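User: C-alpha cells for this complex, please. No commentary.
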Amino acid sequence: MNTANLAWAQFRLERKLFWRNPSAAFFSFGLPLLILLLTASVFAGASDELNVLIPGVAGMSVMATTFNAMAFNVTFRREQGLLKRALATPMPLSSYFAGFLGNAVVNAFVQVGIVVVLGHLLYGVDWPRDWLELVVFTAVGVFSFGALGVALSQAIPSFDAAAAYVNIVFLPAIFISGVFYSTEALPGALDAIAQILPLKHVIDGFGGAIVTGRGLVDNAGSLLVVALWGLAGIFLSVRSFRWE
Amino acid sequence: MSEAAIEVSDLHKSYGPVEAVRGVSFSVGRGEVFGLLGPNGAGKTTTVEILEGYRKRTAGDVSVLGHDPQRRDRALQERVGVVLQSGGFHPQLTAREAVDHAARAYPHPRDAAETISLVGLEDSSDVRIKRLSGGQQRRLDLAMALVGDPEVVFLDEPTTGFDPAARRTAWTAVRALKDLGKTVLLTTHYLDEAQSLADRVAIIKEGRIVAEGPPSDLGPGSAGYRVSYLAAGARVEHQTDDPTDLLHRLTGDALARGERLDGLEVARPSLEDVYLELTSEDGRGDSS
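Assistant:
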C-alpha cells in the first residue's frame, strides 16, 4: 500500500481506538461541552457575554482535542512501546502521524460544530457569518495545536506526569486567552502574553467568523501567528522526537 | 552459501563517556539462529537495537540483508521482523485487529489468521489485548513480527520474566522460525536458552565478544576436562585436555599401589562453566 492508503488505514484504526477508550473520549468531547453548558447557563440571555463565550469555548475545544490529546497520546504510546513498534514496521512515520493527527482533526471539527449548533439552538447566538473563516481557523488551529502537543510530549517524562504538564499549559492558556470573558478585562501583562500565544488568535478568528463578521483578510495577522506556532511545533517535534 | 544475512564489523557505540559496545564483530548466515549471550549490561540490547535501526552507531560497519539499518530504508523494514522486549500494543484492540493492521504495511504479508494460529493464539484472536495474559501478549508480539513474512527476525530477550512453561512454549516458537528458514538473532542472559536454540553463540561481556562458536564447541575447547577423586577424604582435582591419557596414568598408579580411586568423576565442562569463567570478574575475558 502507498503512503496515502496507509495513512487512511491508520486513521480508521485511530477512530476505532478513540471510541473504544470512553474516558479519553469523554475528556476531549464531554468536558468542553459541559463547561459550555454550565457557563452559558450563567450568561443565558446576556448576548454580549455569549458572543465572547461561544467562540471562546470553540477555541478551547480545538486546543483540547488536539494539543491535549496529542500530548497525552504520544506520551502514552511512547511509554507503551507503541512508537517503538511503529518505528520497526515499514509503515512510514508520515502515514502514521497523518492518521494519528487526522483523528484529532475530526474531533476538533465535530466539536466546533457542536459548540456552534448548541450556541445557536440553546442560547440564540446567530449562525456564523463567515463559514469559510470558521473552517480555515479550525484547520490552522488543529494543525498548530496538534504539532505543539506532539512537541510538548517530548518534554513529558512519563504518562503519569502528562496531566500536570498539559494542564500547566492548558489551564492558564484558556484563562488568559478570552475563553470565559473578554481579554479587555485582563491586566496588560497577561494580555501581552496572551497576544503572543496562539489560542487567543484562534478565538479572535472564531469571533470574527461567528459574531463580528471581521473577515479572513482582517484576521490575517492572527492566522499568521497561529501558523507560525504550528511550524515551531513541527520543528521542535522533529528535532526532539524520541521513541523511548 | 550466499552472503551473510547480518554482518557486524568492529561496532562501537558510546553514550556520552560510557562505551556500551567496544568493537563487536560477528556475522550471521542466512537461515542461521545466532545467540548473543551475556549478562545484563553487556551490550546485547544496544547491539541489537543498532541492527534494528533504533540507534545510530558511533563507529564500525553494520549490514542487514545488504542494507545499513540506521538509514531506516523501507525496503529493509519490509524484510525484517522485530520482537520487542515488552508491550507495544493498543490494549483496546483485539489480537486479530492488531495483526491485520500491521500486515497492511508489508508488500507480501502472511495471512493474519494463519499467523495468529502459528503462534497458538487462534482461540483468543477476538479478545481485547488488555485481557490477554502476559504470555499470550508475548506470542502476539511474535505474530506481529512474523506477519510481514520477514527474512530476518530479531528477538531481544524473548523469555525474560517467563515461567518455565512459557519459556518452553517460546522456545518451540523460535525453533519454528528456524524451520520456516528465517535468520534469527536472539539475545539472552540465559545460558540454557542460547544452548538449546542457537546454532552459534557469541558470549559478550563489557561490550566485547569474548568467545564465539557453536554451543558444543564452546565447551571442551575452552576449558579442560575435570578429573577428580577422593584421597584421604579430600577431593583431588586435575584439569586436562586429554582425559584418556590422564585417566590411564591415574588408574594405573592406583592399581600399582593396590588402592581404589574413590569417587572418581570425569566431567566434561558445560557451556555454563565456560560462560561463568568468561564472564566472571577475573575471568580470562578481561585479557582479550
